[in-house]
Amino acid sequence: MADTAVGRADEGRVGDYAAPELRDAREKLSEARELSRTAQTNKDSTAAKHANWLAEESRADADLGVAKAQLARSQEINFELQRDIDRLQPAAAPLSVPSHPETSNPVPADAASVEAPKS
Fold first, then answer.
1. Which residues contact 13 (CB under 8 A, 6 or more apart)?
2. What's this model's pTM, rounded to 2 decimal places?
3. Are 25 and 61 in contact (CB under 8 A)?
4. Contact assessment for residue 6 and residue 29, using Cβ atoms and an 8 Å cutoff
5. Each residue of 23-40: pLDDT tens digit?
6. Domain extents for the chain?
7. For the chain, how many helices (H) and strands (E)?
């Protein structure tokens, strides 16, 4: 499971955005593998539990890296889209909305066609 998570992170180029998390995941996975071999050789259940714990931490670090990379990519895309929107918006002054003479509230566009209620 941790192997899969680290592999998925590698495929997703997580290292471009979340190198520390991916590095931690790889280190913990490597340590978990070593400890697991030692646990099997020595029939050490405590070492086996620790190896499983490290493998789970490795998976969590890889998943965190993937999430951070997705966030960074999304932020880049949002920035690019906003830049394009700003560039494409007309440079003209904002549209002015007529105000009702007695108040500073804008008059709705269809206000002229609305009749006053009859009492």
1. 69
2. 0.64
3. yes
4. yes
5. 999 999 999 999 999 999
6. 2-88
7. 3, 0
